[in-house]
Automatic annotation (TrEMBL):
InterPro entries: Gly_transporter. It comes from the Bacteria. It comes from Arenivirga flava. The chain crosses the membrane at residues 6-26, 62-81, 93-111, 117-140. The lineage of its organism: Bacteria, Bacillati, Actinomycetota, Actinomycetes, Micrococcales. This is Glycine transporter domain-containing protein.
Length: 158
């Protein structure tokens, strides 16, 4: 069906050439992509937390659901783009900004602020922390296995 006219093939070819031609430009605006990614994390966190609160979820689980929504949205994006899943590697913090934004949303909602204002603050807090984390390389330490040592018994059996 798609090949009944030359239009589809022409548009696909032009889009491929545009992508190749603009590749350098996209590398130069990496900061904009980081900013948009941070905003997306904030939006997902706000949506997840707001939905959880609307459905009557308790406060801490609502924050947790906001973080899960933000992280899940980021994972879907990375899978669709064929990128390594960021949360699975040591790098700039990802879930912590979402938790901070979700906590800000919850605090404002409990204080009686309109949910739209609380959601906007969530997006801003999340995006700001994420952008600063990328800019300054804030990360959590790499997970290591616990090394439990046994104490040697001194002396023999009594």
């Amino acid at each position: 069906m798609a090949f009944t006219t030359n239009w589809y093939l022409t548009v696909a070819t032009l889009a491929a050439f545009a992508g190749m031609a603009l590749g350098q430009l996209f590398r130069r605006v990496d900061w904009a992509i980081t900013g948009l990614d941070a905003l997306a994390i904030g939006l997902f966190a706000a949506i997840g937390t707001t939905k959880a609160l609307t459905l009557g979820t308790a406060e801490l689980p609502a924050i947790f659901l906001g973080v899960i929504t933000a992280v899940g949205g980021g994972i879907v994006r990375e899978v669709l783009l064929g990128l390594p899943i960021g949360i699975m590697h040591v790098g700039p913090i990802y879930a912590i900004p979402a938790a901070a934004g979700s906590a800000a949303l919850l605090g404002l909602a409990v204080a009686g602020a309109p949910i739209a204002v609380a959601a906007a603050v969530c997006v801003i807090v999340t995006a700001l922390i994420r952008i600063l984390a990328v800019r300054f390389g804030w990360s959590l330490p790499e997970q290591r296995a616990l090394q439990l040592r046994r104490r040697r018994q001194e002396g023999g059996a009594a």
